[in-house]
Design a protein that fits this description.
single chain, alpha/beta, Rossmann fold, Dihydrodipicolinate Reductase, domain 2, eight-stranded mixed β-sheet, 16 strands, binds nicotinamide-adenine-dinucleotide
């Protein structure tokens, strides 16, 4: 079914709009989810004409589609004709009056029934001002149409600033109208975690503290900071990856089973899950969290973080975080979750490893100390997508000796190409009013509170950086975190 709506994109000339939003909207149009009854107003400071805006939108589609071999028919132009540009300074009230007039005209012209999506593709410091003016200047429709607000990360830099940001928009939009994008939640392998856990008797019955020894989450990047130094110097790996993406994955892996798979039940369980992560004292942070910053590689061909363009010579920003979290959700009470993310690591890979317990006596050996290998379920998220299940079986030897084998499933390149881009799926969900894959304020708030304890502890101490070689898997302390518990990282390239 198609959905009628007017999109008002603040930051319409920006990078996010160009690289992600216009191609995603085009895909929805190409697939018929957006038909002729939609319109987009792009706003930003630049004085663009509608004609110029159409050219930009078409070039965004072309740039995004180049690899997929899309034929250059006239669909992009038909699509771009639905776009209108309104030059706008977010602080200027008069501009909201003009915006409202244009919005009302387009609502009438395209018969949009008052459905509006406000997409804030701009820095968060503008969110409160925009949300306030949208309400004061009556851009929010009343009647049967919907008003939805989509916002991007970063959602604050700690709990107090996130709360301030949330308060600044909640005067104009209710929680159910706010769609906070965490693009990891738009990725199919992340969405499939719930299906794997709750749609299979095999895993459903084993997902408990009786059977799971530990959970490991790795978001490893092989690249360095590239051209994002300006942003990264103010954020670091904790704010960039842990508070949002990793904590969302933690809650999907540790939440209790919802009675019904719908957005409200699911989010309720996810909120409980993040609230049941143990809060650490400062001493516990020192024991359970490791930070790092990359130095040169062993052949000195790659720059240390501090020597990259745009970074401070004495930067104390972390490019690596590892930590041990403990869940107190009833089913997994006490199970450790080891998390790890970093730049310039050995290999790019996002994966989750579920390590099962290995308490059974090995009846196949006379030696009581000879343990069987543990069973491990690996969810491959990026760049590979699929699963590996590691289990023991008899191999072709005399007698009865067991060895591990790997049952592998990987999506093919063709299958991966058919999966919609995260933004396409998320915008479609927002159009449908489906909040399954968006973060609730309570999840965001609690994740910040957990991270703030770590951040505050770190900020009081000067780190000894750089402390890992580019191309390695991070500082030694990240391995020690597991070794001291008698464990090791499953992903060890
Ligand atoms: P950008 O700098 O490319 O674009 C910012 C936009 O805001 C531009 O259109 C600019 O004209 C407009 N703008 C700035 N000040 C304005 C003002 N006073 N009045 C009116 N318009 C104004 O930034 P971006 O990369 O598109 O990112 C936008 C937001 O999305 C940021 O908060 C960013 O952190 C977030 N984000 C971006 C990406 C991405 O891939 N680019 C990914 C995730 C999150």
């Amino acid at each position: 079914m198609n959905q009628k709506a007017l999109f008002i994109i603040f930051g319409g000339t920006g990078d996010l709009a160009y690289r992600k939003l216009y191609p995603a909207l085009f895909n929805l149009y190409e697939k018929g989810y957006l038909k002729e009854d939609f319109a987009v107003i792009g706003t930003a400071r630049r004085p663009w004409s509608n004609d110029h805006y159409h050219e930009v939108v078409m070039s965004a589609i072309e740039d995004a589609g180049r690899d997929s071999g899309r034929t250059n028919d006239d669909l992009p132009r038909k699509f771009a004709n639905h776009f209108y540009y309104q030059s706008h300074n977010v602080d200027d009230v008069d501009h909201y009056v003009a915006l409202r007039k244009l919005a009302d005209e387009l609502d009438e012209k395209y018969q949009l029934e008052g459905n509006r999506i406000f997409y804030l593709a701009m820095a968060p410091r503008f969110f409160g001002t925009i949300a306030g003016h949208l309400k004061d200047q009556q851009l929010l429709t009343d009647g049967d149409g919907f008003n939805r607000l989509i916002i991007e990360k970063p959602f604050g830099r700690d709990y107090p600033s996130a709360k301030e940001l949330n308060d600044s928009i909640s005067g104009s939009f209710k929680e159910e109208q706010i769609f906070r994008i965490d693009h990891y939640l738009g990725k199919e392998p992340i969405q499939s975690i719930a299906g794997l856990r709750f749609g299979n008797a095999l895993f459903n019955s084993l997902w408990s503290k009786e059977h799971i020894d530990n959970i490991q989450i790795t978001l490893a990047e092989s690249l360095g900071v590239e051209e994002r130094a300006g942003y990264y110097e103010t954020a670091g790996a904790m704010r960039d990856m842990v508070q949002n993406h990793i904590m969302q994955i933690v809650s999907l892996l540790t939440m209790e089973r919802p009675d019904v798979f719908d957005p409200s039940h699911l989010r309720e369980k996810k909120i409980e899950a993040v609230e049941n992560i143990q809060m650490y004292s400062k001493e516990e942070v020192d024991q359970n969290f490791v930070r790092g910053q990359y130095g040169e590689d062993e052949f000195k061909t790659q720059l240390a973080y501090r020597d990259e363009e745009g970074t401070d010579d004495n930067s104390q920003i972390e490019t690596f975080v590892a930590g041990k979290l403990i869940t107190h959700n009833p089913s997994l009470d006490g199970v450790p979750i080891y998390i790890r993310t970093g730049k310039r690591l050995t290999k790019k890979s996002t994966q989750v490893n579920i390590v099962f317990k290995n308490n059974d006596k090995n009846i196949f050996s006379d030696n009581p100390d000879e343990k069987l290998e543990t069973n491990v379920l690996t969810m491959h998220i990026e760049p590979d997508q699929g699963f590996t299940l590691e289990f023991n079986t008899k191999t072709g030897n005399q007698g009865y000796k067991l060895s591990p084998v790997h049952l592998r499933y990987r999506k093919t390149a063709a299958e991966k190409a058919r999966i919609p881009d995260a933004y396409e799926g998320l915008i479609r969900d927002a159009l449908a009013g489906d909040k399954t894959n968006f973060a609730h304020w309570h999840e965001v708030a609690q994740a910040w509170k957990i991270m703030d304890v770590v951040r505050n502890t770190w900020d009081a101490e000067t780190p000894d950086f750089p402390n890992y070689v580019s191309g390695s898997m991070g500082p030694q302390a990240a391995d020690d975190l597991l070794t001291r518990d008698g464990r090791e990282w499953v992903f060890n390239p």
